[in-house]
Amino acid sequence: MTELLRVENMQVALKASGEPLLEDIHFSLPRHACLGLVGESGSGKSLTCRTLMGLLDRAFTCSGRAWLNGVDLLAQPPEKMRALRGKTIGMILQHPMNAFDPLQSVGKQMVETFTTHLALSPREARERALEMMQNVSLRDVIALFDRYPSQISGGMLQRIMIAIALALEPQLLIADEPTTALDSVTQHDIMTAFRAIRERLGTTMIFISHDFGVINHIADRVLVMHQGRSVEQGEVRQVLRHPQHEHTRYLVASRQALQRRYQALLSPPANDMEAVKKEVAYDRVG
Q: Which residues have CB under 8 Å from 199's CB, separation 6+?
């Protein structure tokens, strides 16, 4: 597969103090592949992607190279990055409510986005919005179109964000922990939607999560981050089975411990089951 993105020695620091926040971040991403960024809170996952999107403010300095289709993202002026965001690089945020204007209906915001980036007429943009909402398995889309963000659940807003991103057909789609704030059933639905996106459209993706289980479900390769550094990377299954770095081993072991506790709750030991049966029998006699 041909390479879409290559990041070389990317560094981010606080301008006032020089304190490093990201150091020597490097990875490559082939077209149609998905890279999972995994690490604990504060490891630099989201900062890495905000840097690639050109969303750092003046309090930070940045160096290195990030080549996307031959364009160095880290060397582009703000106006060029604004043009690239959305159409070339799409981003799905962790908290979907923050991505929408609370004073406008989601339909109006979708139409404005599509008329701006896709050069559609308002009527065409409305039709495109309804079509894309259906494509991410939303129901009663005409009613949803006229609702305000506060009238829509977090899971539905997340699907609408996905619909907007896909309509713009970006070369690269970045998903920043899109399931973290959702309940388990909605998390499953959103992950199913992302899997369908990959299988149907072959969209190149960076998927951020603190959960190796989520990364294993969606990504081909994984980059493990710790304290602002990339400490290990490789194929997801290989890293899960044979983690090399101490921090990767810790993350994998933590995931396995949670799985064991979950299985223990589902399948209690035989003596515990006998106690449960006796309790049930006693209740029936009483």
A: none
Q: Cα separation of 161 and 137, whole Å? A: 13
Q: How far apart are CA 218 and CA 228, in angstroms?
A: 23
Q: What is the dihedral of CA 90, 9, 202, 88, to 10 degrees?
A: 30
Residue 27 Cα distances to 37, 91, 128, angstroms? 11, 19, 35
Quick one: which of 48, 50, 70 has its CA closest to 4? 70
Q: Helix or strand or coil: residue 24? A: strand
Residue pLDDT, tens place only, 50-71: 999 999 989 999 999 999 999 9
Query: Domains in the chain, start-ordered, CATH in brackets?
Result: 3-88+170-285 (3.40.50.300)
Site of tokens 């999972």: 36
Q: How many whole angstroms separate alpha carbon 265 and alpha carbon 125?
A: 49
Contact yes or no for 82/97 (Cβ under 8 A): no
What six digits make up the tokens of 251? 């993350």
Phi first, then psi: what are they for 6, rounded to 5°?
A: -135, 125
Residue type, 212: F
Grade residue 103 by pLDDT with cuts at 50, 70 and 90.
Answer: very high
